[in-house]
Design brief:
single chain, mainly alpha, Four Helix Bundle (Hemerythrin (Met), subunit A), 81% helix, elongated
Length: 152
Amino acid sequence: MCSYCGCDSITVIGRFMEEHVEIINACGDLRHAVADGGDVPGAAAALGALLGPHTASEEVGLFAVMKRRDEFTDHVSTLCGEHRSLDELLAAIADGEHELMESFEKALRDHIHKEDNGLFPAAAMGLDGEEWIEIDQVTHDHDHATGTVHHH
């Protein structure tokens, strides 16, 4: 998690960064299940229960607003594509393709690094107050519509 620029003080970014920690921890649980012959489908489902709402919330709020700006459009589109790839890899692992675990974990950590140390600081510097109000509202509305509860 980035802690050098202060972008985590922006409520939604701080929440996303905290969720990244939870997701990485759940990824560790999945890695252990794969390595030890544990409940891989259960660990994958637990990780998916964190990852799915997190990426959906990013995409409807922060990413949607950032995509409106030419300087962010391509990068945000790439990150959205990575969300799909991570979902596909996780589903394959849950279905027994355990050899994909290392690739999944590397892709997940790389993706989170791009957000925490690239996109989020850029958003903090590049977006204005009205955009943050919109992001907060859309993210809040999305979370309530999906029943997602955040304990942060």
